[in-house]
Amino acid sequence: MKTIKKSVPFIIIFTLIFNLGSFSYEQEIPRDISIAFKVGSAEELARYFNNTIELVILDQEDVYSKIQAQQIIDNFFTDHFPKSFEIIHQGGKEESKFAIGKLVTFNGTFRVYFLLKLKNDQPFIHQLRIEQENE
Fold first, then answer.
1. Contact of 66 with 46, CB cutoff 8 Å
2. Comparing C-alpha atoms, which of 13, 14, 18, 75 is closest to residue 42?
3. 109-127: b or e for each residue (b if 16 or more CB lie within 10 Å)?
4. CA 27, CA 12: separation in Å to the nearest integer?
5. Of 5, 7, 39, 85, which residue is the least packed, with the fewest Cβ within 10 Å?
6. 8 Å CB contact between 119 and 113
7. What is the pLDDT of residues 86-105, one digit of tens each?
8. CB-based contacts of 29: which residues, under 8 Å, 6+ apart?
C-alpha cells in the first residue's frame, strides 16, 4: 500500500508531462515549412500548398493554383535568396494554425505570414504573405 501511495505523485507528474508535450507538439508548424524557407525551396514549400492559395508577395496579390504559386515563390527565392528564417510567433486552433516569421535574404529582410488549415488531417497553406520588413 505504501508503494502505491509513493508512486501516485510520479504517475501524476508523468501524465502531466505527457499531456503537455502532446499539446505543444500539436500546436507546432510542420518543420519542413521552416526548412523550405531557410533553403529557398519553392518545391518543398509547395508540398504544403492547398489546391488554391491566396498569395501576397510584395506588390503582387491574388489567388493562385498550387503550380502558379510555386512558380511565383520560386521567382521570389531566385531574386531574394535566403540567409535565414525563423518563426517568431505561432498560434491557432485545432483545425487552423498561423505563423509569423522573419526571412533574412541577401536582398533584404521580410516578414512572412502563413495560415494553415487541416484537410484530411494534413496541414495545407491557404494563405501566404511575404512583405518587406520595415526596420
1. yes
2. 75
3. ebebebbbbeeeeebbbbb
4. 23
5. 5
6. no
7. 999 999 988 899 999 999 99
8. 87, 90, 97, 99, 116, 123
Q: Is the pLDDT of residue 81 over 70?
A: yes
The answer to whether the beta carbons of residues 131 and 109 sit under 8 Å apart is no
- Residue 66 CB contacts under 8 Å (≥ 6 apart), including other chains: 46, 49, 50, 51, 52, 53
CATH architecture of 2-132: Roll (3.10)
* Residues 74, 7: Cα–Cα separation, whole Å: 56
Given the C-alpha cell 507538439, which residue does it identify? 25
pLDDT of residue 115: 97
Rounded distance, CA 69 to CA 92, Å? 24
pLDDT tens-digit profile of 19-66? 433 333 345 889 999 999 999 999 999 999 999 999 999 989 999 999
Q: Pseudo-torsion of CA 30, 34, 37, 39, nearest 10°?
A: -110
The three grid cell numbers given for residue 87, joined into one nine-digit string: 518563426
Q: Where are the domains of the chain?
A: 2-132
